[in-house]
Design brief:
Strand order of the largest sheet of chain A: 10-7-6-18-29
Protein name (chain B): Coenzyme F420-reducing hydrogenase, delta subunit
Oligomer: heterodimer
Number of domains of chain B: 1
Radius of gyration of chain B: 15 Å
Radius of gyration of chain A: 31 Å
GO molecular function, one term (chain B): iron-sulfur cluster binding
Shape of chain B: globular
CATH topology of chain B: Rossmann fold
Number of helices of chain B: 5
Largest interface: A-B, 65 and 56 residues
Shape of chain A: globular
Keywords (chain B): Iron, Iron-sulfur, Metal-binding, Oxidoreductase
Organism (chain B): Desulfomicrobium norvegicum (strain DSM 1741 / NCIMB 8310)
CATH architecture of chain B: 3-Layer(aba) Sandwich
Largest sheet of chain B: 4 strands, parallel
Strand content of chain A: 15-25%
Structural class of chain A: alpha/beta
Number of strands of chain B: 4
CATH class of chain B: Alpha Beta
Strand content of chain B: 15-25%
Number of helices of chain A: 18
Distance between the termini of chain B: 20 Å
Strand order of the largest sheet of chain B: 2-1-3-4
Largest sheet of chain A: 5 strands, parallel
Chain lengths: 669, 141
């Protein structure tokens, strides 16, 4: 029976119609073989647009539909659902793109229209060979894994846990809290960071639905949406979490001192340590690289001191396997190391600090007990704060880190508050970006406190007569400046974690140009990724301040919960299929399959696809010497037809390749 | 070479990286010459060498295969399989009188819209230099 194809060409307002003559394309499609009805319409994705398709399916008895509009990555599902509502199998629809790949990128109208015709013809030829396919529904494991326990990970974990679902919260450092635990105050309200984050950290520890795995890293992720299997490496802590009471006696007796990472190198910690007395969990960890017992086999002072006998030097890394339905990545950010920017003298001049170091100087449990002091123990009389160090800079990061203007204003206030109003504070900025709720008001307040703002990025910091001199230009006044100060704070860029690439590979997500994880859609899918069931939360997706990170994390939790609450997920039927009549049993595909989804049937001497494990990558189909392996919805005959439509067919050439082509077609039919 | 020669080029691109980059190039309005038409594949690993040959025999003057950067494949390693197959085709095509430059493999990541537009424009220019692929003439030999 002849096919009855409906073709729908979308104007997308003027997005497509501005370059492509849509009525002409629709008229062209009407002349193609098997096309029963062809229409153009202003917005196919709108309700009336979809109704148009549904009505035609009923009235004209269409058995195939082609929609030419935006990218299938945007609206393929919309039109598949419209077809399904009309009782047509959604895989009998072909969605082709005449916007992103045609109208938006082609300069000439006639050329754009010609290209659109090719694209539509290819879709019409392809859809003729489409087959009905049916999605499978599989149960979703209701548990959720959250990776990273900074403020975003904590928020996501608490949101999920409070709904009654179990959360596995994995953190690679010894305690949770992330960067926020290092801060002293938060802008613009000047809340104490610990006062607002510690209750959340304690809530995590006390929440019965959260399994907290600190000092742990995810090694491997297998499976698919709703059914992931995650291998977590529990690094040897050498302190038993079950026995330790967190009394801290060991911390005082340990004879080995090491520069503290948590103090950003401004203070020392012992070889057995925890980040702060408020750390959650309070169990310390032994740094195997520096511990004398673990490196040289002698010492063991902590073991002798521990009143509960919690120290265990025989601990080994161990691996635990978890089954979860979805994963929320909340791995956070790194701050850029300003050492390569030699012009600012970080690492050379002792009074040049990074912003995180300055946070520690302000923190009540930091190395100076919360006093802003120079290395000589005196308070600085003047401080220069340099904005955009490594941000908005083509040589480092083109993006804006979004937080520096605001925390610089917070520092302005804290210096005036702690050192005294006589202290001089200079901000060297490019633009002040105070866009959040209450931010502009805070900027105004700090200006009134007598802080100096200089528009212009300084060229260098030099040391002269025991003072640091910031050399730059006030671009508003057009004058060159040399400002002598006691202390310089560099507002270093937020950047993607150094191990983002490896983490991206483990979880099967992509990185954007800026190095951060890439979201599914920059506006409408900011927490989903290309991998279903893997969501993003917080700064691992891009620089964010705390309110934005928390909101983003709550969004990630909502996505994970939506999946868990529904309980089932439909799995794409576009898997591989090996034609048992053609397969010769060469086993070539078995070695190629990255998911071990192909088994060998010894009795029939053929390879067989395990559809539950197949992801439809086509590794087998791309190689199969006999053409037995084919990906459903990407079968050879479908691709060949698409190729024919995209090119100006030359019928006499067809005779030349009849051998390959016709044989293949016959095999498929 | 014919001054008005406009090459027809087919691109087999993977859904996760290059197709997304092409979307991004579109959203960013990066104007490209209209000669390249995309065939969306789920992975470059499913590009059967037959598809490339079929395209060249059906009138394509050049074929682009483009997927995720090495190590970034959505399906673990499909792009490496594509690389092997393209290498094989690069050996075979010249034996049939087809310049191997007519087939190109590139890696364009999902966020590289500008890279995609540049790749497309460069490839079109190179194929324009090479001139039309005269399969009919070759068959007459």
């Amino acid at each position: 029976m002849a096919r009855r194809i409906g073709v729908y060409v979308c104007h997308c307002g003027s997005n497509i119609a501005g370059k492509v003559d849509c009525p002409d394309v629709a008229a062209f499609a009407r002349g193609l073989k098997n096309v029963t009805v062809s229409r153009d319409y202003q917005f196919m994705c709108s309700d009336p647009g979809q109704d148009l398709i549904i009505r035609d399916i009923h009235e004209h008895g269409l058995d195939r539909v082609v929609v030419a509009s935006c990218s299938p990555r945007l609206h393929e599902k919309t039109f598949q659902k419209a077809c399904a509502r009309a009782g047509l199998n959604p895989y009998l629809m072909q969605h082709c793109c005449i916007r992103e790949h045609c109208s938006w990128v082609t300069g000439d109208k006639a050329e754009a229209t010609a290209k659109a015709k090719h694209i539509v013809e290819a879709a019409v030829l392809r859809v003729r060979r489409h087959q009905e396919l049916h999605s499978r529904e599989v149960a979703v494991v209701p548990d959720v894994m959250v990776v990273g326990a900074g403020i975003a990970g904590i928020q996501a974990a608490l949101d999920v846990a409070r709904s009654g679902h179990r959360v596995i919260l994995v953190e690679k450092s010894p305690s949770i809290g992330g960067h926020m635990a290092q801060f002293d105050k938060t802008f613009p309200t000047l809340d104490c960071a610990a006062c607002i984050s510690t209750p959340k950290m304690v809530a995590v520890a006390q929440e019965p639905n959260i399994d907290l795995l600190t000092w742990s890293e995810v090694e491997e992720v297998t499976g698919f949406v709703g059914n992931y299997t995650v291998t977590v490496r529990r690094k040897a802590r050498y302190v038993s979490e079950d026995i330790c009471t967190g009394c801290g006696a060991c911390l005082e007796k340990c004879p080995t001192k090491v520069l503290s990472e948590f103090e950003e190198g401004l203070g020392m910690r012992r070889a057995i340590y925890r980040n702060s007395p408020q750390a959650v969990p309070s169990t310390p960890v032994i740094d195997a690289e520096h511990c004398k017992m673990l490196t040289k086999g002698k010492c063991g002072v902590c073991q002798k001191t521990c009143p509960t006998g919690a120290i265990d030097f025989t601990q080994q890394d161990r691996r635990e396997v978890y089954h979860v339905g979805s994963v929320i990545l909340a791995t956070g950010y790194d701050t850029m190391d300003p050492t390569p920017m030699t012009e600012y003298g970080f690492g050379r001049y002792p009074e040049v600090y990074t912003a995180l170091q300055f946070e520690r100087l302000n923190n009540a449990v930091g190395p100076t007990g919360g006093k802003i002091l120079m290395k000589n123990g005196e308070a600085p009389k003047s401080v220069a704060i340099i904005h955009c160090v490594g941000s908005r800079d083509k040589n480092y990061h083109e993006y804006c880190s979004r937080t520096c203007c605001m925390y610089a204003l917070k520092y302005d206030h804290l210096i005036k508050d702690k050192v005294g109003h006589g202290a001089e504070v200079y901000n060297f900025y490019i633009d002040m970006r105070c866009f959040g709720k209450g931010y502009e008001e805070f900027y105004r307040r700090v200006q009134d406190e007598g802080v100096t703002f200089v528009r212009g990025r300084p060229s260098e910091v030099v040391q002269e007569n025991g003072k640091l001199v910031v050399v730059g230009e006030d671009t508003l006044l057009g004058t060159r400046l040399r400002v002598p100060v006691d202390m310089v704070v560099l507002c270093t860029a937020m950047e993607a974690r150094a191990d983002t690439t490896e983490v991206a590979r483990v979880f099967g997500v992509s990185q954007g140009r800026d190095g951060f994880f890439l979201e599914e859609h920059p506006k409408l899918g900011p927490v989903s990724t290309a991998s279903d069931g893997i969501y993003l939360a917080g700064t691992c997706q891009g620089p964010k301040d705390i309110p934005d990170a928390v909101a983003h994390a709550a969004g990630g939790a909502a996505q994970a919960l939506a999946l868990a609450a529904r309980g089932v997920v439909s799995i794409s039927p576009t898997t591989s299929w090996i034609n048992p009549d053609i397969c010769v049993g060469c086993k070539m595909c078995i070695g190629l399959c990255p998911y071990s989804a192909i088994e060998f049937d010894e009795r029939r001497h053929i390879a067989v696809i395990n559809e539950a494990m197949c992801k439809g990558c086509g590794s087998c189909a791309g190689h199969c010497p006999s053409g037995a392996a084919q990906i459903k919805h990407f079968r050879q005959v479908q691709v060949f037809n698409e190729i024919d439509g995209l090119l100006d067919r030359k019928p006499d050439i067809m005779a030349l390749i009849g051998d390959i082509y016709e044989t293949a077609n016959r095999a498929e039919a | 070479m014919n001054q008005e020669f406009e090459p027809a080029i087919l691109a087999f691109v993977c859904n996760w990286c290059t197709y997304t980059a092409a979307d991004l190039a579109g959203t960013s309005r990066m104007v490209q010459q209209p000669n390249v038409r995309l065939v969306r594949m789920m992975c470059t690993g499913m590009v059967d060498p037959k598809y490339v040959i079929k395209a060249l025999l059906s009138g394509a003057d050049g074929v682009l295969v483009s997927g995720c950067h090495p190590g970034d494949c959505h399906y673990i390693n499909g792009n490496y399989k594509a690389r092997r197959r393209v290498k094989l085709l690069n050996e075979i095509l010249p034996q049939f009188g087809i310049d191997e430059r007519r087939l190109r493999l590139t890696w364009v990541g999902a966020s590289e819209g500008n890279e995609f537009a540049a790749t497309v424009n460069n490839f079109i220019n190179e194929i324009r230099e090479l001139g039309p692929l005269d399969v009919r003439g070759m068959a007459a030999l």
